[in-house]
Amino acid sequence: GAGVSQSPSNKVTEKGKDVELRCDPISGHTALYWYRQSLGQGLEFLIYFQGNSAPDKSGLPSDRFSAERTGGSVSTLTIQRTQQEDSAVYLCASSLSSTGFLYEQYFGPGTRLTVT
Amino acid sequence: GEDVEQSLFLSVREGDSSVINCTYTDSSSTYLYWYKQEPGAGLQLLTYIFSNMDMKQDQRLTVLLNKKDKHLSLRIADTQTGDSAIYFCAESESGYSTLTFGKGTMLLVSP
């Protein structure tokens, strides 16, 4: 594909429900990142996948958040028992990976999650 | 912990220069970035600078880095209405590690 795609583009859910957000990275990109953009909070890192290595989950705000990356490509971010403070735009990015050099992170358009 | 701060809003007239400022706290920041986010769109990397550089120029964009003061700025020459967007400053310790972002500066360019 031409770029990183995310689905759905918008999601409205009731408090307490589970949601799944999907990210399709650029083909061939081995690194995948999830960020959250909240009003007044800016962008915060959530989780990072690099190839077959264990993901860096250090940014996940609670154990209600989890993410998987199947086959080293598509990733799903799952939020269980959603709360109103989970309302935000969830951004996915992907990049090539290497060591010692800069590889640009390409961002998707995001999924806007609204918890009512 | 790491922190990146930037002013929240800047308003300029078309044709003027815009200067967006950013400060960061992490001494191990190796790469510093400026991203642009237009309404309804994802983030787009505008430019970046290595921590061993003082300045980088790319067409209308000039990035200045004062490593001693941990201060980064983005100057946009001849600002156009199409430059209206949110600009994010970000830093990372390596070229492929996660990014720490500021909260973004909304640039509004009036005709």
The level of helicity of chain A is under 10%
In terms of structural class, how would the helical and strand content of chain B be classed? mainly beta
Largest interface: A-B, 30 and 22 residues
Report strand % of chain B. over 45%
Order of helices and strands of chain B: EEEEEEEEEEE
Work out the number of β strands of chain B.
11
Tell me the Rg of chain A in angstroms.
14 Å
pLDDT averaged residue by residue of chain B: 90
Shape of chain B: globular
Please state the oligomeric state of the protein chains shown: heterodimer
Notes on the structure:
The complex is a heterodimer of chains A (116) and B (111). By secondary structure, chain A is mainly beta. Chain A is 0% helix and 47% strand. Chain A has no helices and ten strands. In chain A, the strands form two sheets. In chain A, strands 2, 4, 5, 8, 9 and 10 form a six-stranded mixed β-sheet that branches. Chain A has a four-stranded antiparallel β-sheet with strand order 1-3-7-6, with no helix packed on it. With 111 residues, chain B is an all-beta fold. Helices cover 0% and strands 56% of the residues of chain B. Chain B has strands spanning 4-6, 9-13, 18-24, 31-37, 43-50, 55-58, 61-66, 71-76, 85-92, 100-101, 105-110. The chains are: A mainly beta (116), B mainly beta (111). Chain A binds chain B through residues 4, 31, 33, 35, 40-45, 48, 50, 56, 59, 91, 93, 95, 97-105, 107-110, and chain B through 31, 35, 40-45, 48, 88, 90, 94-104.
Characterize this entry briefly.
The complex is a heterodimer of chains A (116) and B (111). With 116 residues, chain A is mainly beta.
Main attributes?
heterodimer; A: 116 residues; mainly beta; 6-stranded mixed β-sheet; 4-stranded antiparallel β-sheet; 10 strands; B: 111 residues; 5-stranded antiparallel β-sheet; 56% strand; globular
